Amino acid sequence: MKLTPLQLRVAREIVSHARRENLKAGEHLAESLLAEQIGTSRSPVNVALRHLAELGVLNHDSNRGFFMNKDAGTLDELVQDFSTKPDDPLYLQIADDRLAHKLPDLINEADLMRLYKTSRSALRKVLSRIQEEGWLEKSVGHGWSFQPMIDSPQAYEESYVYRTAIEPTGLLSAAFKADSVELASLRRQQQFIANGGYGSMTAIELFESNREFHETLAKWSGNRFILQGVRRADQLRRLVEYRQAAKERTPRRTQSQEHLAILNAIVANDQLAAATLMRAHLEGARKAKVYGENLFADK
Length: 299
What we know:
Blueprint: H1 5-20, E1 28-29, H2 31-38, H3 42-54, E2 58-61, E3 65-68, H4 76-83, H5 89-99, E4 106-107, H6 109-116, H7 120-133, E5 136-138, E6 144-146, H8 153-171, H9 180-200, H10 203-220, H11 224-247, H12 250-267, H13 271-290
Antiparallel strand pairs: 1-3, 2-3, 4-6, 5-6
Helix pairs in contact: 1-3, 1-10, 2-3, 8-11, 8-13, 9-10, 9-12, 10-11, 12-13
């Protein structure tokens, strides 16, 4: 089965989800929950699940749905195969060039088509995706305008200052309420990473696990604006975090251990301790990442 770029990305994220959860053979994968977690409709999820069943990763029962055919921990080879097939090379190239300041703030489709030697239809699909992620907008007149993103050490630091202002506040919210099922899932994921998963997981998998942790806690705050703010920050930091994870793995173990400490405070119903740990976690990450290796130079 030949997948579209979207379907390939969904298949990769389903495998990533299974690995983060350390799912075992026989465990069920619910289409609706996967669609919600990945942020897409059920249609591409269904296609991706069927593709994984064709590869032997899943079993498909027409009445009961999809089940793991093998332990997620045995899927390293498939993950490496997926990692050699980026969901959209054109998207990744535009993102990389923008991070490296190779593209101007204003640009038109004709110039992009010549630069990347691509068709207008393929380009527009990618531009629409980038627009949805919030770092590109259609100009009032002609062409496209890149929006502010994390493309410099200063912007990276500003993102951490912003997150430090809202994420601990969310944990102190009077409306804060943790979901026990989601809490157990987050603890399993972070324990898997701390126990060695940080070494075998791809940069995308590591980021998605990090993103899920922070967005889930923001959701528990009961404050829609805090959740929207964290989601927006995650959209903007996705590209630079991919680069950071690809360059250095060991800090991911420390990161997961700090995540577990925050979750343990939540289990103990100590929101103040959780908020204090979150602030220290974000401050530590800011100092380590912003002032570490330059992620914004030309590759």
